Amino acid sequence: MTQAPLISGRSLTKVYGHLIALRDANLAVMPGEARGLVGSNGAGKSTLIKILTGATAPTRGAVEVAGEAAPLGDPKEMIRRGVACIYQHANLAPAMSVMDNLFLGRQPRQRFGLLDRARQRREALDLLERHGVDLDLDAAVGALPTVQQKEVEILKALALDARVILMDEPTAWLAASEVAKLHATIRTLKAGGVGVVYISHVLDEIFALCDTLTIMRDGCVVAENTVAAIDRPTVVHLMVGEKLARESDEAARQKRRARGSGEVRLRASNLAKRGVFKDVSFDLYAGEIFCITGLIGSKRTELVRTLFGSESFDSGSLEVDGRPAAFSSPSRAIARGIGFVPEDRRREGLMLEMTVTENLAMAMLDRFRQGFMLRRGRMVEAGRKAISSLSIQPPDGTKPVNLLSGGNQQKVLVGKWLNRAPRILILDEPTVGVDVGAKAEIYAILRRERDRGAAVLVVSSDLEEVMTLADRIGVMVAGRLVAVHDAEAVQMDEIVREIGMETA
Asked: What domains are defined for the chain?
């Protein structure tokens, strides 16, 4: 007798007014299978996942769990049937302990409704042992490394007897070593018969972890295959279509412009911040893209936040256009022609409930002021030009930013600073959670800024991105800039070797 899939969706379609978000999509997951789900932002992945978890009811189609028809649009019932979802952003109570998060809302109780803490601890320890996970049950979840927070979410699902776990960009904020640890946990789940749907824009992860692959584009499933039977270029072409795939290929062949015009825009000399970084020296030139890479925790982010005035340094010196600069606040850095795209666009970069036009204007409101009033007409016109220049989709300045895909949100964030025509543009992990097509578009935007003479400094842990985008590459290890290379003269394996160095 043929074994039934743990979960299957058949002919799933979702229509919002005149928009068809999902069209006749099929997906099935067998016991012990890790199925990759890939596609550009807006391809329909999130809609499909919401239907499978019961968060959204389809316009038509059916979902089965273990061969039995499942109710549509009923998340509690899907959880009861063993379907769980782990999202990119943690869904945990950060101030509570690991143990309390594992049993949140369903703590075991004694007579008269009192919590049975002893039983709760026994069940939590049994859960850790059964699934080979090492966690401090009494630690506050918010104090844990991100990878351990993901493990808490996985265990929370398993405590509910989940047989299918859907994971949406689970490694977006993890270092390489943490990704390997999470993948080991997922392999253990597979060995126990759990099915996994793994959504990721990082194709290396899909090829390393998944058994099968479903590719989506424009709301449709365009291909299904085993991972062993398909190659990376084919996946990219199926995901983004011929035009963007060609643009992505062309981006990797761009001519490098190490040291740009030769004019030093920003000079750091022996910069140090006690306990964070030390002896950091480099020159950033007009007309070049300088990428600094390294593991998460190598203090790259702390360095660039210091350059922007968000944090201070203890010793050393900083010059902008040949003049001393020790910014006491970001506003002073902005006044000297520096723009900064932070790593976390949702918390630090964008006003999610505000419109695209309003976000694009946020860094240059002074230019739209007339007394105490904003000249809305000028702001709308500037927004319209930026939307067209950046190919933001949909091209509607009145749409709230939180309704845009991740790639288009990122283009809004970059555009917010480009509106000021910065002489120095600093970007921290500019394409985290962004699909390959949007990456190619963002790379083209950054090269355009470089070619107009801006000095562009990018922090990235994505080595493929660094090797594709950089004119020069710096490597940070444990708070020190240990090497700087011309991108055309260095191979990825040398960068990898330097990233793994230890410094005294």
From this structure: 7-82+162-240 (3.40.50.300), 257-499 (3.40.50.300)
